[in-house]
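Dock uridine-5'-diphosphate; give full complex structure.
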Amino acid sequence: MGRHQIKHTPAVSVVIPCFNEQENITTLVERVEAACMQFASNSFEIVLVNDGSKDHTWSMIAGIAGNSQHVVGVNLARNYGHQLALSAGLQICRGDIVMVMDADLQDPPELLGPMLSKMQEGYDVVYGQRLSRAGETVLKRASANIFYRILGKLVDIQIPCDTGDFRLMSRRVVEELNAMPERYRFIRGMVSWVGFAQAAFPYERDARHAGKSNYPLKKMISFAVDAVTSFSTIPLRLTAHLGLIAGLFGLLTLGWVVISYFTGQTVGGWASIAALVLILGSLQLLMLGIFGEYLGRMYMEAKHRPLFIIQEVRSCQIGVERENP
Ligand code: UDP
Ligand code: MG
């Protein structure tokens, strides 16, 4: 009898969120399965989470899960976004060690072996750190670079640069993540927040195997705002700082006006007033916007809605208890 039946939990779970990845699923499962066979003997599961894809991703996942002991298919009720799809996978998976990767094969599954060896040196988290980013636009690289630098300045915890969600985590780290109730999830930051011993694993990031990126600029910006607002309240304090600066500037201007008055010159023009009013007005609206960003998030969090809804779990694993909604 294998370890599978005795412990009811696999040694390794690989969790993969999938959104419109029909061209990648077959190769993905083949490569991940091969890597797991090699490095996790027979005790592994691959959890594929379909995040409301519009193409044939789910029917492909369901087909594979129905035939394979190792593949678990999770179908979400709609598209909840990458981080929530990943959270769903982390809730469902049962492995002692959990590997997270993307469905587009940008993160090579074959690194499971070397990353597992790194874990055995006594780490709870081994995160992939990108040395290169093949096939990504200059804009994407530059924006990612600036983003991680700014984030580093704003947050108290150390969020390593050039990392994605590609990583290995121990069961206790995954349990801690699952216990975090927040809706706006910046998972790589949350993992740093958990702590324990964490190590970087440098690797070369491949280009997308097929299909196109689901992170257009708009999504990237909202992801960046999520990251900052989930880990920092410094932007809120900016109001006070700007107020101080504007006040000092106002005092200086006042001094200038008074001196001009007594030296017989008048400070001219409504243009200067209009400029000042516009600048101050825009600063106030900007700060109100930042407040609104935090307030809106508090409102959404206060509703305590479930993070995601699972429509179906497809699995033919034996001996693994999994609640099916
Ligand atoms: N993804 C998802 N839901 C979404 C968008 C993306 O589950 O709404 C998945 C996608 O299938 C992939 C991973 O998240 O496995 C990363 O997405 P993508 O490759 O498009 O992002 P990029 O690598 O370009 O940052
Ligand atoms: Mg990708």
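Observed: The first strand starts at residue 12 and ends at 18.
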